[in-house]
Design brief:
alpha/beta; 9 helices; Rossmann fold
Length: 236
Amino acid sequence: MPQTVVDRIQAQPPLVHSGGSRYWGLAWPALRWLEENVQRGMTTLETGSGASTIVFAERGARHTAISPDGREHEGIKRYCTENGIPVEQLNFFAGSSHEVLRDQWNPEPLDIVLVDGAHGFPYPVLDWWFTERHVRVGGRVLLDDAYLASVNVVARYLRHSPSWELEAVAGQRTPCFRKLDNGEPTFEWGILDRHPRHDYLPPPQRLAAWARYRFVDWGPLRPVARRVALVRGRRG
């Protein structure tokens, strides 16, 4: 049977990272997902670059890749050229994604966004924040390494947002979310605030803080607590 682009990458991974000495890439199930879902003519973007960039190019997307090391971009273009993959629709930015997305990228409607750039907090959040409003309704966002806390906070938000739905999980670390409408995050109490965490407190204080939040601040005892506070205020 003829090999697909992911078959070829898996058989001989392109050494485009660490100055041409290493291969880092999406897990194979995530690359397969891209191979199956990216369609010719789509407009796509990723933070990071590597094997995924090659798949986007081979599938005929008009694709933007953002990563700090321009040598990666040259290695990717060289691999594509040597393997008959067109590079005319590839657009690279060498720089930190949050700065490129803010200052250099020309926003356009996007069909697929892959967040796989800097993994330290808050960079995955910023990658999502600068791109999500440009994702078409029906478009998708993939979050690689979503088990990491810095990425998982975005995944948690999207799982609870009425404007997004979890469509698939490619392998065990790359969830795919589909945009349902153009609803925006709230400025005040938001979706994640329904599930408070008090892990910044010493362990003995966590249960008391949770109980106060659950039953007094925002629970059945809230009216009583407000009346007590009002009476105390008048006496004061």
